[in-house]
Amino acid sequence: MLLFTRTKGIPKVEPNGIQITSQRHDQRRFLRNDVDSYQEAAEILNFINLKKSKGNYIVDADGNTLLDLCGTELNPLGYNHEAFVKAMHSKDFDSALINSNLTSNEVASADFNALVQKVMKPVSPSEKLGAVTFTRGGQGVEKAILTAMAERGQGNWTALGFQGATHGNHTSFALAQFRGTPKLPSLGWPVHPYPVAANEASILDDVHTSLKLQRNSGKPVAAVVIEPMQSTTGSVASERFLKELRSVTKDNEAALIVDATETGAGATGKSFWGFPAVADPDYLVFGERTQVEGFFSSAESKSSTVSIGGDHLRLLQFATIQENMVKERLLEKVDLTGASLRKQIEQTISKKSGTGLTGVKGLGTSLFIETQDGETAFKLQGHLLKEGVVVKANGSRGVSLKPALIMEQKHVDQFTAALSKF
């Protein structure tokens, strides 16, 4: 009876489409005021009814059914997927949920290692790499950097990254260093522009030069960190660049860390982790869509700060996602749907001269619509929300779409219909 009650009221099927019943947003205003009475609420875009939401759609506090193309970023199967509804009837899920606060090195379930092997081994980028997991917190890149430094012994080690990168949470040293967060101190490590087709060769030369200069100055680089697709711009590093970067890091005895947090779990439709095999990283950092956080590395790369107990629930969730990615052929779906989405966005933009929409970047369904300035970006976000589509503002650069893997052609059509009215 308890299990039945837990999932009672969850919709069996996804809504037919966007349905706006109220533009007044009274409940949204009331709830935001309630939150604002005890903490900052300006960044809250909407309040949703999680139990009524389904698939690619959310039902907000005012009863509107909206197409969500960003909130599902961390929810690859969409809202209330049947696979998770069924999983809630599992004793394994029950136990993991009740004891999900076990987050220490000292305590872990007896079957934890077997679960790690079962869930992570099939998606390892290489047979020589094993998975290291820890509790969520956006610390994957930081821990990979620190582990790479520890492997190399004592020394004044540094790391090299690329401008605009988003590695970790809002206060992480990796984010402050490579994204250039003005309110946080920088470590003074070498940072280079993210590679695009026009400057790949010169960027590689600059990276090679930096690695030599750092070594000669007594501050050698222990690791080079890169996102296959930059999460803030949608720019994509080419296969050729990643291959050459791998060669450069080997020549200079630096580890290559690929941060697949944004591209992992099928987000690009190209591969599970979203980058070509030639990259052959020493560390592959994962998180967000995978639910569980950590990195793949060689057997000798062990982190002393790993926290394993609380990952049991996340691993079970990731296992459910993996199973349904295969069952529903979601990689193929993302590739096909993404191609259609990109084409329709490009066609719409070509007809919208003078609106401030300048282009589209990205891979798969993870796309970035560029705008001429920040004002246009927020104006576009507001317009789409009014039309029943939720997207994420990307600062002064535009808006980003990071939908669930289950996005279909009908959702593409609904989005482009809303975009065409801008």
From TrEMBL:
Any Gene Ontology biological process: gamma-aminobutyric acid catabolic process
UniProt keyword terms in alphabetical order: Aminotransferase, Pyridoxal phosphate, Transferase
One annotated GO molecular function: pyridoxal phosphate binding
SUPFAM superfamilies xref list: PLP-dependent transferases
InterPro entries cross-referenced by the UniProt entry: Aminotrans_3, PyrdxlP-dep_Trfase, PyrdxlP-dep_Trfase_major, PyrdxlP-dep_Trfase_small
GO CC terms in record: mitochondrion
Recorded family membership: Belongs to the class-III pyridoxal-phosphate-dependent aminotransferase family.
Name used for this protein in its record: Uncharacterized protein
